[in-house]
Amino acid sequence: RTRYEVIGVVRNFNFETLKNEVRPMAMYLNTRGSYLAVRIKPGHPQAVLASIQEIWTDQAPWAPFEYEFLAEKYEQMFDKEQRLGFVFTVFTVLAIIVACLGLFGLAAYTAEQRTKEIGIRKTMGASTASVVGMLTAEFTRLVVISFIISIPVSWFFMNEWLKAFAYKTNIGIWPFAVAGLAAILITWLTVSYQSIRAAKANPVNSLRNE
Q1: What is the pLDDT of residues 30-47, one digit of tens each?
Q2: Separation in Å, CA 93 to CA 82, 86, 97
């Protein structure tokens, strides 16, 4: 049995993907190994690689000089998660844009259909703020209902995704609260233009058109 002298101990670190638990690892000197680890200073790596290749060719001309960077190997392990995050970000932005366009069109259609009602309310003394609040509240109610329905579905898929990782965080209420507030804010910003436009219209023209 070969005995080795311990010359140092390092802190535990993850040398595999985030889906694997941190395991024990021993690093030891081996004069018969087929790999050579070299630590270089940042900046101008090609010049350093040329010097290493020259020494390698001089000392081991029978072995081809092949190299890879450890940082790139670690990046490859996390590449899948990064690409998945990028894809989700792109589709989320597209979904928000499409939803805003749909809300904008639906707000315009609703205001058009309720022109007479808005005109009567304005004639009876309703303020612009009350009319805007009435139209905005209807869309806000729909967004809140859809958000409540989406919470358990989102939690289920997020929890299933996190199960693949060895060390995962718990899903709290804050991500859902922030998402809900953002959805309501986007709804208000999208619908407010059509609501204000309909509320400021002359009620006489609205009733005359009807």
Answers
A1: 767 677 788 888 777 888
A2: 17, 11, 6
